[in-house]
């Protein structure tokens, strides 16, 4: 069983050309905007936990194109103007069935910003007041000028064809009381179109702009310098070249062409220049 997953990314489809970012990359589904407009999105405030009951009769035909089956959906609208969001999604094991979640994250214009497959969820065993459940924790930082982001939770035909093994309650009790677990079979739980989804949203007040290459935020990273193949001495770059890169990065940011700005930074750092990166960090959230 893998460790609990925490995925960090930026909802940057308005500024970036990253169609799908997740712990396990999956093909980006296509959803007709008219179908999205028909969905009843449930508003979720910060620090709020909501429970959604899903039943088979709530199947949505539009999911067939990317899920292989008409799946019930849980649809949430979350404020996107209050910094980094920590979102926990859980699906409870109900008696002998389990709804296996997959997640699509959309920006304020219903562009798909990220996808998460069932492989990004971890089985957590019964503990305290919480029963066996699948769980994933998402840490998302929406870019500026978005009021809301949207989460769509569904299951797939591939997941429905499988089952999940959970520990027998007698084993759980034995471990909790420090006794030797009995030698009995664990329980096979069938995957289902019915289930319970719990969503918990909290703000982290994190100003770090997540989703760009992580080295951009490492202020201690040594800058690359070009050295002579003969004497390994650093080549000094003239002021005109440095000025060119500084201006080009600023121009790319004003045009909201982040990919171009990043390419310019990479080229500048090959020449040993550090100011283009500093300009980028100072202005990326203001343009």
Automatic annotation (TrEMBL):
InterPro entries noted in UniProt: MalM
Signal sequence residues: 1-22
One Pfam family here: MalM
Biological process terms in GO annotation: carbohydrate transport
GO CC annotation terms, alphabetical: periplasmic space
Keywords: Signal
NCBIfam families reported for this sequence: PRK10564.1
Record protein name field: Maltose operon protein MalM
Phylogenetic classification of the source organism: Bacteria, Pseudomonadati, Pseudomonadota, Gammaproteobacteria, Pasteurellales
């Amino acid at each position: 069983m893998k460790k609990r997953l925490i995925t960090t990314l930026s909802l940057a489809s308005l500024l970036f050309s990253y169609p799908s970012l997740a712990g396990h990359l999956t093909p980006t589904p296509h959803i007709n905007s008219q179908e999205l407009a028909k969905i009843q999105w449930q508003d979720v405030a910060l620090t709020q936990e909501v429970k959604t009951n899903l039943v088979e009769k709530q199947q949505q035909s539009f999911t067939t194109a990317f899920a292989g089956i008409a799946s019930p959906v849980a649809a949430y609208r979350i404020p996107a103007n209050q910094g980094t969001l920590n979102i926990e999604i859980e699906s409870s094991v109900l008696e002998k069935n389990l709804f296996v979640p997959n997640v699509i994250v959309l920006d304020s214009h219903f562009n798909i910003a990220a996808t998460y497959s069932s492989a990004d969820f971890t089985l957590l065993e019964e503990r305290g007041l919480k029963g066996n459940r699948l769980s994933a924790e998402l840490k998302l930082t929406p870019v500026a000028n978005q009021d809301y982001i949207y989460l769509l939770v569904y299951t797939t035909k591939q997941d429905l064809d499988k089952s999940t093994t959970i520990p027998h309650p007698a084993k759980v009790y034995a471990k909790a009381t420090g006794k030797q677990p009995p030698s009995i079979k664990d329980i096979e739980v069938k995957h289902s179109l019915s289930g319970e989804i719990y969503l918990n949203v909290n703000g982290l007040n994190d100003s770090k702009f997540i989703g760009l290459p992580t080295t951009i935020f490492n202020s201690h990273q040594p800058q690359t310098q070009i050295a002579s193949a003969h004497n390994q001495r650093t080549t000094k770059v003239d002021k005109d070249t440095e000025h060119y890169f500084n201006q080009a990065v600023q121009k790319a940011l004003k045009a909201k062409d982040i990919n171009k700005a990043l390419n310019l930074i990479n080229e500048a750092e090959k020449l040993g220049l550090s100011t283009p990166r500093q300009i980028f960090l100072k202005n990326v959230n203001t343009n």
